[in-house]
Amino acid sequence: MNAALLGAMRRIVGRSNAVDDPEVTAGYAVDWTGRWRGSTPLVVRPVDTGEVAAVIDWCAANGVAVVPQGGNTGLVGGGVPLHGEVVLSLRRLAGISQVDAEGGQLTAGAGTTIADVQAAAEVVGWSYGVDLASRDSATVGGTVATNAGGLRVLRHGDTRQQVLGVQAVLGDASVVEHLGGLVKDNTGYHLPSLLCGSEGTLGVVTAARLRLVPRFEQRVVALVGVETMADAVALGGLVRRTVADVDAVEFLTSSCRELVGLPVPLGEEHAVYVLVECAGHDDPTAGLAAAVGDLPAAVAGPSEPARRAQLWRYREAITEAVNQIGPPVKLDVTLPADQLARFVDDVPGVVPEGARTWLFGHVADGNVHVNVTGVDPDDESVDDAVLRLVAARGGSISAEHGIGHAKQPWLHLVRSEAEVAAMRSIKHALDPAGILNPHALLP
Ligand code: MLT
Ligand code: ZN
Description:
Bound molecules: D-malate, zinc ion
Helix content: 25-40%
């Protein structure tokens, strides 16, 4: 351990928040899947933006690389110290302020969990547009930095579309802040958009001004059985065209159903299940039922919250169930709608024999989570085969998880040399010492 580093950090954040005990730091050095495991000499836990700026100032002056970390729920290794970096944990910057019940906005500290943002929004009659299975751990800072997607992108957009402003510490320790929340504010470069999805490489997000969305009380969920992925894509299109108030259209294959260990939901097994959720001020059940027609379906309406949650378990339990087998190769990809079914049908054919492919995701967004088990997670031939297939079909190598470490070698499949060069120029301008998550995102 570098004594000067430890001494400086203890002076800034206090002895108890500059942690070098290996038993404690180990928990910050591995992601929850166990796939991405590194090591760190020190975890620094500032309590406010001033402390974050002081930490960055010292690290920039001394050439110490830093990995910002929120709830550590990322899935591409972008939030763990894979090259021995210092971990900058933002979890203590939690808290909600400046709630505007009329305008439908609030400000949240980087360490606030998504569940806490949702709860604060509900208190004033609103809702937060981003929801994801890791809502109890994922933080505002982490979801802004990675532009997290989740279950309601179809209706409300990704995290970038919720962010009206951010406060952040850039790589030169300057603090940028634009938290006024004006809906119309056309005054030059939109730094929140740039920081959103920058994966901690340009600045450390310390707070965000978030827009809220209407809170709909009348909710209905349908789990529908279909025989092919093409049927699932067609049903997703029909629902979106004909039903008002669609929140989510998700899918899972029968093998995922079997893996999560929940009973066959519709009397007999179907090759693919489509989960649709609608929510409105009026009961959306009739409109959804009309779109589903004669297809086999389990439906849980507004008065059945427990049953709705039960149907969502078929979809939300998959990630954990796959991980029980062992750390999978996780490939979060997106395809044009007209290529989605063919891709899902073809992708098991490009992974090595003996491997298992688990396919689920957000069918309305064209977003497939390709999880592969039974292969060495370090065997990049699986990533290579799947991501090349994605690119060949006009898709993207990351739909919502980001690039992190996992996708770096394949960024060139979807981003031109000129685009990567422009990204490097921006990185250099905002982080001249190159200390902010220097091994993530850009190859
Ligand atoms: C999901 O949609 O469930 C998440 O993106 C997590 C995952 O890909 O495992
Ligand atoms: Zn997802």
